[in-house]
Design goal:
Blueprint: H1 9-22, H2 35-42, H3 46-58, E1 62-65, E2 69-72, E3 87-89, E4 98-108, H4 111-117, E5 126-135, E6 141-150, H5 159-162, H6 169-177, E7 183-192, H7 195-201, E8 208-217, E9 223-232, E10 236-238
Antiparallel strand pairs: 1-2, 3-10, 4-5, 5-6, 6-9, 7-8, 8-9
Helix pairs in contact: 1-3, 2-3
Length: 246
């Protein structure tokens, strides 16, 4: 066992639990050992274990159920399902869409993409590039979307995995490929629609659009996805909630 003396003990406990999750020792839905068992395993007090578990619960990695224990979170349960869904219509309704895939191909990542996904040489440099339209329930195009996924993490991915999907994307990743998204970085910018985007969204070229660029990460800050979504810009809003004071 690594020494727990080089960092605040609860943070080192947190790191070692995350390492265990990254290795697949505990999978989504599994119950963690009891606090006493974890304390014995790491050689720390139960209060230190509770502090480490509390951080992982706050960030959505774990779920604590009174009288039942601590579980590895599923993306399809409770608030996890829409944890990373931040786009709303102009009347304040959270956007719900259906994916319709336009194309999917396996390609070698260019230098910028490889750097963003931290890919190495050889076959690890290959990615899936998925282009899709996000539609409302009545079939109206809401956004154009592009996904870039490293093939080594999603080795069996097929077009039908993404076609006409209403399932939360990260639930799909977790269920089918055991890839758990823990956090993301997003950049939101204003643009004018180019001809391709205008055609997809059925607006005029130059119409205002909102572009949301995302990189999603799994355990130990390993990138798993680049996602670009371009929404019609006058009827949609992006909501950011800052839950902690700096």
């Amino acid at each position: 066992m690594d020494s727990l003396s080089k960092a605040p003990r609860y943070r080192e406990v947190r790191r070692q639990i995350i390492d265990s999750l990254a290795r697949g020792q505990w999978k989504p839905g599994d119950t963690l050992p009891t606090e006493r068992e974890l304390a014995d395993r790491f050689g720390v007090a139960i209060s230190t274990i509770r502090a480490g578990l509390a951080e992982l619960t706050t960030t959505g990695v774990l779920v604590r159920r009174q009288g039942k224990g601590t579980f590895v979170a599923h993306h399809n349960t409770g608030p996890q399902q829409f944890r990373y869904s931040n786009v709303y219509t102009d009347d304040g309704t959270k956007l719900s869409t259906i994916r319709v895939v336009r194309s999917m191909e396996r390609v070698r990542a260019d230098a910028v993409t490889a750097a963003r996904l931290k890919l190495h040489t050889g076959n690890a440099r290959h990615v899936y590039r998925v282009e899709a339209t996000l539609q409302s329930a009545d079939g109206k195009a809401i956004a154009a979307m592009e996904l870039v996924l490293p093939t080594y993490m999603f080795p069996t991915a097929q077009r039908e995995d993404f076609e006409h999907g209403t399932e939360n994307q990260y639930t799909l990743y977790q269920r089918k490929w055991a890839v758990t998204v823990l956090r993301m970085e997003e950049w939101v910018s204003a643009r004018n629609a180019d001809a391709k985007t205008a055609r997809i969204l059925k607006v005029k070229t130059g119409h205002a659009v909102m572009q949301v660029d995302r990189i999603a990460y799994t355990f130990n800050d390993v990138p798993v996805e680049i996602r670009k979504r371009t929404y019609e810009g006058l009827k949609h809003r992006y909501l950011f909630k800052h839950d902690e004071l700096d």
